[in-house]
Design a protein that fits this description.
A alpha/beta; B alpha/beta; C alpha+beta; A: alpha/beta; Beta Polymerase, domain 2; five-stranded mixed sheet; two-stranded parallel sheet; 4 helices; 7 strands; 19% helix; 21% strand; globular; disordered C terminus; B: 8 helices; 37% helix
């Protein structure tokens, strides 16, 4: 279950290992995967059914400080990257969805972070969002989740069951689309790619490649 | 104002009016983002002290203002409010667009929520480039505007003619004997 | 203290009464007060919609988004050095402090660590930007309460700090000085002596503000016992920085976190206040400026020799991984959750800005207060619009 330390000579972080053992013991089968990076951070991925209980359990474990909640869209951007040269044809990119730490099975994930005050130990919790694009709200657990869930709803179109008020926070109510989804186009960039990406004047040092472009 | 908008004001009177107008500019501060702090430094701080230029930065409402300084990022959500308050200002009214964001979108040129330039909503008289411009740059923009007001035909202004935008460019304009650098 | 207790109790009773009134069906016709989006008493374009019953706020809701520039989307189409230039503009008063956590996150992913000298200078500039930021707060605080003089003091003394930042980085506001692996440049000649002098001036400024404002009876009676935020509520809402410490939580990420920065090389103190009211929040900030000047003073003595830039490739490609780094910024905890998939630009950056959480408590804290206290409470919570909306 745990993909913690494999190599024996890897640096150990007893504080975080112990904390992770405490968390996995308390959450039980809800934890699908976990990761401790020594002297860095902790990650867990929980099942969507246990989302709210995860919050309640962590709060009772002393993680009373709510840091942030947001989403991730793991679809590789169909519009290329910022560093693509607009004068070249778009390079072929792998369009398979590949999730980051602690894996995952869906395109969208919600990620949140709670911390223990004083010790500054924090844990990042991920949860898969299936095609219903909805998950329980954490509002009743951490009051601060309210605005973060509103933001995530607006940016990714992920619904939160039990949230009192999922109005748009940033954008006009008639705005179409979900900006932080990878398939949301930045129109200004499609009309005119960023001109600075092309070196019009070759630098004195590198005369071998690039150079002129229009 | 029949005399004025038909352009029949005697010349000395025009000069007198213009002189008076240029040195009693009531500025409505539309502080939006980073530039608002530099505008605050220009208007509120003892070092830059805008009042020595005859600019009064304290009107209680846009209805008492001659000049509005749009300083900062204009978002699509904010744009209607800017337009509405600009329309509440009495004629003749002037606009200084301060900073790259208000000029053209600046670093957010590809954003989905930023208006790419306040000139899409309201006409701009002076552009002050920079991200953010130094307070001195804003002062120079104001000086440029005062020069325009002084040489202005009030009738043309009333009829909405002769309002080519100007720009503060690298502080050169002041060195060229007060000739404004005209863009477009 | 009895006065404080009474006020707290009154505020509590008022909140209860307001709650009760909302629930009663035979509610009298209330009034809706709209403050903003452009209002001199809000720092920037925050709009507050408050339902009033007489002089009391029954329900208040900040309406953000007038400064939403889509940072998180824009980071996805920019390279790491370009993102650094962008994130300067989140909290525009303490720009350098915004760069640091992002750079640290990228460095963590790349496995690079800045040389000791760069870490030291980073910390100095970080604290300078905190001073530039919070000193404006101290001046602005007076304006919100009807005292105009402090803001002139603040603008006057802030210029000295901005000059220092400009001398070192070339930018008054947005230095864009931090690089992955170190800093763009070393400190200019004469910086150290100049900084010492300015720090002395800033301490005088703090004393002046304390005399002018904090000892003022009107100021005290308008802030003491107003807008009380208890410890557990503050933590739940994710308040951070001085707002949290003013509620009695002794937690400072500069001290309690192990980051490659130089804070642990100086001797300084984390100030807390038990009251959790507007006064406490302002007071903690004042002390923080003082501590920052002390930190800068001490660090100036011990800048190690060496390069300011580690060896990094010319074109920066960050290996796959995820990293979270947060620092104690002038406004509170600012963190970046950076997801990299091995490209020149980040795959996703979640920007956790302090003001967003600090302001999300507003509907809770404004319930039951009187109308003039809205401005005081907002001023003492201290937000910057760019930091809320990003």
């Amino acid at each position: 279950m745990s993909s913690t330390d494999t190599a024996t000579e890897a640096p150990r972080d007893e504080r975080r290992d112990g904390e992770m053992a405490r968390i996995t013991a308390a959450l039980g089968a809800a934890v699908l995967d976990s990761l401790v990076k020594p002297n860095d951070d902790m990650w867990i991925r929980v099942s969507a059914d246990a989302w709210r209980t995860t919050g309640e359990t962590l709060k009772s474990l002393g993680y009373t400080y709510f840091c942030f909640l947001s989403g991730i869209d793991w679809l590789p951007s169909p519009f290329g990257k910022g560093e693509d040269d607009p004068t070249e044809p778009t390079p072929e990119r792998d369009s398979t969805i590949k999730q980051g730490y602690t894996g995952g099975a869906t395109r969208f994930q919600v990620i949140t972070r709670v911390m223990q005050p004083f010790t500054s130990l924090g844990v990042n919790i991920k949860v898969d969002i299936d095609d219903s694009l909805a998950i329980d709200s954490w509002c009743s657990v951490y009051a601060g989740a309210n605005w973060h869930e509103r933001e995530t709803h607006e940016m990714f179109g992920i619904g939160f069951n039990g949230h009192p008020d999922l109005r748009n926070m940033y954008l006009p109510s008639d705005f179409e689309g979900f900006p932080l989804r990878k398939d949301f186009p930045l129109l200004a960039r499609i009309v005119k790619p960023w001109p600075g990406i092309v070196d019009v004047e070759p630098l004195p040092g590198d005369d071998e490649e690039e150079g002129e472009a229009s | 104002m029949g005399l004025v908008d038909r352009g029949r004001l005697p010349k000395p009177l025009t000069s007198l009016f213009n002189l008076g107008r240029s040195y009693s500019l009531w500025v409505y501060q539309w502080g939006l983002a980073c530039c608002a702090i530099e505008m605050g430094a220009a208007f509120g701080s003892p070092r830059y002290d805008v009042m020595r230029l005859g600019v009064i930065p304290l009107p209680a409402s846009p209805r008492q203002a001659d000049l509005v300084v749009i300083s900062g990022t204009v978002t699509d959500k904010m744009a209607p409010a800017i337009k509405r308050l600009y329309e509440q200002m009495p004629e003749p009214k002037y606009v200084i667009s301060m900073g790259s964001c208000a000029n053209c979108g600046g670093p957010y040129w590809d954003s989905y929520s930023v208006t790419k330039g306040v000139d899409q909503i309201i006409p701009v008289d002076v552009y002050v480039p920079g991200c953010p411009p130094r307070p001195e740059a804003l002062l120079e923009g104001i000086v440029l505007l005062q020069q325009r007001i002084k040489n202005e035909d009030m009738g043309a202004r009333w009829r909405g003619e002769g309002t080519k935008p100007m720009s503060v460019v690298d502080g050169e304009s002041a060195e060229k004997g007060g000739v404004p650098v005209v863009v477009n | 203290m009895t006065m404080l207790g009474d006020r707290q109790q009154l505020a509590y009773i008022a909140a209860q009464a307001a709650d009760a009134r909302v629930n009663v069906e035979l509610e009298t016709e209330g009034m809706t007060l709209n403050i903003g989006p452009q209002h001199p008493a809000t720092h920037g374009t925050l709009r507050i919609i408050a339902r009033l019953d007489g002089e009391q706020v029954v329900w208040a809701e900040p309406s953000a988004g007038y400064m939403h520039r889509g940072y998180e989307k824009l980071t996805e189409v920019r390279t790491y050095p370009q993102v650094t230039a962008l994130v300067n503009r989140i909290d525009w008063l303490g720009s350098f402090a915004n760069e640091v956590p992002f750079i640290l996150a990228a460095e963590k992913l790349m496995g690079v660590e800045a040389p000791a000298r760069a870490q030291h200078i980073r910390t100095i500039l970080f604290e300078l930007s905190r001073i530039a930021n919070v000193s404006l707060f101290l001046g602005d605080l007076g304006v919100q309460l009807g005292a105009v003089t402090p803001v002139f003091f603040a603008f006057r003394d802030r210029e000295y700090v901005l000059n220092l930042i400009e001398a070192a980085t070339g930018g008054r506001f947005h230095p864009n000085f931090d690089r992955i692996g170190g800093l763009k440049d070393d400190l200019p000649a004469g910086f150290i002596d100049e900084t010492r002098m300015v720090m002395k001036k800033l301490r005088t400024f703090c004393d002046q503000i304390e005399d002018l404002l904090f000892g003022n009876e009107i100021f005290q009676s308008r802030t003491r016992g107003i807008g009380v935020i208890p410890k557990d509520v503050a933590l739940q809402y994710g308040l951070s920085g001085a707002n949290l410490r003013a509620s009695g939580v002794d937690w400072d990420l500069r001290r309690d976190q192990d980051l490659p920065m130089a804070w642990n090389k100086a001797d300084w103190k984390v100030w807390t206040h038990p009251d959790g009211d507007s006064f406490a929040r302002c007071w903690v900030r004042l002390q923080e400026v003082r501590e920052s000047t002390k930190i800068v003073d001490q660090l100036l003595d011990t800048i190690p020799a060496g390069p300011v830039m580690a060896k990094v490739p010319k074109i920066i490609k960050v290996p796959e991984g995820e990293a979270w780094v947060s620092t104690e910024n002038p406004l509170g905890e600012m963190g970046y959750y950076v997801v990299s998939q091995g490209d020149q630009g980040p795959f996703r950056v979640k920007i956790r800005s302090a003001s967003f959480n600090n302001i999300s408590i507003v509907p809770w804290v404004l319930k039951g207060v009187y109308v003039p206290d809205i401005i005081t409470i907002l001023a003492s919570l201290y937000f910057i619009l760019g930091d809320i909306d990003r």
